[in-house]
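Researcher: Good morning. I'm working through a list of sequences from a screen, and I'd like to move beyond sequence-only analysis. For each chain I'm collecting a predicted structure so we can compare shapes side by side. This is the next one on the list. No need for commentary yet; just the structure.
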Amino acid sequence: MQESGNLLGSLLPLVVLFGIFYFLIIRPQQKTQKEHNAMLEALAKGDKIVTSGGLIVEITKVEDAFFVITHVDGTQSRLVKSFVASKWEE
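Model: Good morning. Structure tokens for this chain:
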């Protein structure tokens, strides 16, 4: 009986530590990722975005894995959706 008590006593700190990691690190990170994915899905033609490189560009066309974007000088290029940092709100 004491061996099972020792086992429970030695595993309890690990369970508590995992719970702390889950609620302080894993859960907020998953929530942020879900919000970012929802923002990417909601982007449409004409929206202005900030790229992960810091450029502010306008979306010209939405494709499956890319956005066709227009720079301030009028040049167009394709941007992978994962490189969108945020939507630009003026």
